[in-house]
Each structure stands twice: as structure tokens, then as C-alpha cells.
Amino acid sequence: MQSSALTPNQYIAELPEDRKAIIEKLRKVVIDNIPSGFVEEMGYGMLGYVVPHSLYPKGYHCNPKDPLPFFGMASQKNTVNIYHMGVYADPKLHDWFVAEYPKYCKSKLDMGKSCIRFKKLDEIPYDLIGELVAKMTVEQWIELYEVSFNKK
């Protein structure tokens, strides 16, 4: 369910009523906690936070015209998903998140490489997500990205 919205506000406005408050709260948590330098924009049909070309001119290796993605959120048919590239690239951050998750949620963690899916929308661990996005600066993400993905 990719959105064709051009702005984060348009994305939220187009959501079903039961999802608006959830995505707005999630967005506020991210904005309040993400280190400076990341920029909010629409990308890949979801709300995202990226390293702009002004800080990382190489862009994303999959498509250098795109800024370097870091974090995203999307309202899907049956879930709300977050995508954190640092969790995918940094085993220590991944292990920290997996260990912390049960302290915040009763439900089992549903996680792919960078995707964390929330089926029980009343159990989204907003405080934990705030901690997660705060753990990596733009500089740290660029350095990790260079080592992990951009082999050129």
C-alpha cells in the first residue's frame, strides 16, 4: 500500500481515521528524538527521514538520485510498520532493540531486516521507538552505511 502523497501532511490526511492519530503520534516521537541533520520527506510511498544530498552527496547506492534513507513509517493494510536502516546494519543496535522490546510490549516482536511490524496498534512502543531513533547520528549512519552497503 504505497501512497502517492507528496508531503508528510498529505500522507497523514489520506489515512483512514483510525490510523491518523497513530501515525501523527509516531511522527511526533520521531521528530522529537531524531538527531539533527536528518530531513523528513516522502519516499518509497511512506513518510521517511533521510540524510539529504547536502550532507551526503553520493545519495542512496540503489539510486544515487535519492537521498540516503534512514528511517520510515507506513500504515499498511493490517499493520503499522517502521523501517530503521540502522537496525539492519548494526548488530549491536539490533540486539539492543530485540532485548528492550519485551520491556515495552506484551506481543511478540514481528521484525524483518529493517522492518518492524505492529499488528496490535494499541501496543506500539512509542518511547522505545523514540530511544531507537535517538541512538544514531547522521555522521554515525553515514559511516556505518559506507562500511556496510556502499562498497564502491
Descriptors:
152 residues, alpha+beta, six-stranded antiparallel β-sheet, 6 helices, 6 strands, 41% helix, 20% strand
Written account of the structure:
The chain has 152 residues and is of the alpha+beta class. 41% of the residues lie in helices and 20% in strands. The protein contains six helices and six strands. Helix 2 (17-33) runs parallel beside helix 5. 28% of the residues are buried.
In short:
The protein is of the alpha+beta class. Helices cover 41% and strands 20% of the residues.
Largest sheet: 6 strands, antiparallel
Distance between the termini: 33 Å
Mean pLDDT: 93
Order of helices and strands: HHEEEEHHEEHH
Order the strands across the largest sheet as they lie in space. Answer: 1-2-3-4-6-5
Low-confidence stretches: none
The helicity comes to 40-55%
The geometry reads as globular
The proportion of residues in beta strands is 15-25%
Please report the number of helical segments. Answer: 6
What is the number of strand segments? 6
The SS-based structural class is alpha+beta
What is the strand and helix layout of this fold?
Blueprint: H1 8-13, H2 17-33, E1 39-43, E2 46-51, E3 68-75, E4 80-84, H3 85-89, H4 91-104, E5 110-111, E6 115-118, H5 126-134, H6 138-148
Antiparallel strand pairs: 1-2, 2-3, 3-4, 4-6, 5-6
Helix pairs in contact: 2-5
